[in-house]
Amino acid sequence: MSARSPFLPDVAGDQAQAARLLDWVGMARIALPLRIGGSDGAEVTVAASADIGVNLVDADARGIHMSRLYLHLQDALSSEVLSRASLQRVLQDCIASQRGLADRVQLTLRYAQLLRRPALASAHSGWKSYPVGIDAVLDADGLELTLSLAVEYSSTCPASAALSRQLNAARFADDFAGASPDVDAVHDWLASPRGLAATPHAQRSRADVRFVLAGNVDGFPVLDLVDALEHALATPVQTAVKREDEQAFASLNAENLMFCEDAARRVAAVLTTDPRVARFDATVSHFESLHAHDAVARVRG
Fold it and tell me: The pTM is what?
């Protein structure tokens, strides 16, 4: 660049060739660190990705100031713990950085939350990764925060369980026809391979839930909501598993036979009573071991 050209050209300020307002202009999959606060007051830094964009309210403007959005994110989200207040400040700064080109901004954050989960019966524990998403929208109506989570669980089919019990009962009747077995004989028969004529089918399943957080919720209660969902579903997939844990898991599955409709209602029941959740949208998917398709239910509240 010669001494006669001290300024770099900025063609983004040129007039648009085809004037039109735009709903969202920005960047996707920006890599950045997030500082996350835990329920115990501890902080952890996680690797995250972000989508950030604004509306373009000047139809004649060719483009927005993308680099300003990028720099605001990099500086703000790595310097303080993520909260409603911190997101409000960074989003307000993002709108202000556009100098009249935008009046609405949307930020989406994605990261994996590692939580240590205890075994069901043994003294062991292990880490489990939960995908977390945060959508933050700031416009003339204020700030709306939506938290999304996914939890995996086991679902045992009630219909399959009933059919299996029928076969088990029929075999018992055949094996002891005309006999009057005592308790020990029945016990030994149940503990033998003959005592299991059929087993119900079960499968790994997943609940994907989006929560619009109430306006008085400043943080992101990931652990509390994961605990609430896993408690409601009762059969979350496990980490460390010894034989006693596997037996306890089998018992839980027998006590919590679920169609996808049952699982959706369990999720809705626990979220409807949570004051931190203003609205929710849940999808439960049972990745069938019997069928070649999935069984899915959705519920809102």
Answer: 0.89
